[in-house]
Amino acid sequence: MTTTTASPVPLTGPSSAGRKPAAVWEPAADVTVRGTVLLLPGRGEHAGVYGRFGRRLAFDGYRVVVPAVPAAGSAPLDGVDLVGPVAEARETAPPGTPVVLAGSDTGALLALAAARQSGPDGLLLVGLPTTVAAPGTPDTADEWTDELGARTSCPAHRGLLAADPDFRPGALAEDVPADLARAAEDAAAAGPSDGVPVLVVHGSADPVSPPATARRFAGQLAADLVLVADGRHDALNDAAHRSVAAAVVQWLERLRGGPDLPAQIVTTDAGGRTPHPRAPEGNPA
């Protein structure tokens, strides 16, 4: 399989739970698979929303899979099996490559809550939400515009969501399910799971969940924290999506290389000069 298609490519074989993943982005045939990321979407989202992120990581050798499990909060926690998808990913991955459980919004809470039982090699938690719902629902055009603005400042992604019949507007106004919030909070309070590395990514201008939420979870989990300048809630699909994907790949490379790698593989030395100001990333697509 290649990563040049515009939409996710379904797997041909059944999962360990008898279900095909909702989507998978594979590295090209001549690219060594360096690891697997199991990604759980958040409120209102579906697998196809993450095509851009999946293609980017697949280009760098990381397989991205959206498992066919109920959306976070749509079913009781004991009815969501992540043990099977993690086990299958480990069975089918090249030996020695990491399997990471990732999620955005409530998907991040689900990944955190399920980590001890499912046993991934790492956790990627993006846009961790508070337990307080965002006010209002998009009953009017202005409210829908507000939701798009809360999710992302990327024009291309706003257009994708606005035209997507499978995306569910108004989901960010829904309460985070109490059982999911409680399970995630309990997992964070218990601290790092058997030394599993954790990366927390959060927008510094997230109007849905303040950066303080990310800092609190990161502190409890002894996690690396990436704050995205002027970033909104959907950090993987925001204007700085290329920079965020690069930060995720760098973290994955450290995870793959083991604990002896330096905290920063690549560092920048301005040589006494003023660093170049942050510039737009160009074509937002």
Short description:
The protein is an alpha/beta fold. The chain is built from eight helices and seven strands, in the order E-E-H-E-H-E-H-E-H-H-H-E-H-E-H.
Number of domains: 1
Please identify which CATH superfamily we are dealing with.
Answer: Alpha/Beta hydrolase fold, catalytic domain
Strand order of the largest sheet: 1-3-2-4-5-6-7
Helix fraction bin: 25-40%
Structural class: alpha/beta
Quaternary: single chain
Strand count, sense and barrel status of the largest sheet are: 7 strands, mixed
CATH architectural arrangement:
3-Layer(aba) Sandwich
Radius of gyration: 18 Å
Distance between the termini: 22 Å
Q: What is the CATH topology descriptor?
A: Rossmann fold
Pattern of helices and strands: EEHEHEHEHHHEHEH
